[in-house]
Structures are given as structure tokens and as C-alpha cells.
Amino acid sequence: MNSETRTTVTLFAIGFFAILLVFSGNLRFDDIIRFFAG
Question: Structure pTM?
């Protein structure tokens, strides 16, 4: 895998787990915004 593909897969995995956390109720949407906003 080249670096671009690896980055895409990593971002997809992060997003997937974030969505799982949201639907399981352990993470609020504003927490995600705060995380990405730094």
C-alpha cells in the first residue's frame, strides 16, 4: 500500500469508530467537533 492509500484507510477507520461511538452513546457530536478543532 502506498502512503496515500494508507492515509485514506486510516481516516476511514477513525471515522468508522467515531460513528460507532456516537451510536453507542459514549461520544457526543460536540466532542468530535472539539477533537477535530483541537
Answer: 0.50
Centre a 10 Å sphere on the Cβ of residue 18 and count the other Cβ atoms it contains.
Answer: 16
Residue 14 C-alpha cell reads as: 477513525
Joined together, the cell numbers standing for residue 8 give: 485514506
Residue 25 DSSP class: T
Distances (CA, A) of 32 to 1, 9, 16, 27: 28, 19, 12, 8
Q: Which residues contact 22 (CB under 8 A, 6 or more apart)?
A: 28, 29, 32
Please write the tens of the pLDDT for every residue from 22-35: 787 766 777 778 88
Distance separating alpha carbons of residues 9 and 3, to the nearest angstrom: 10
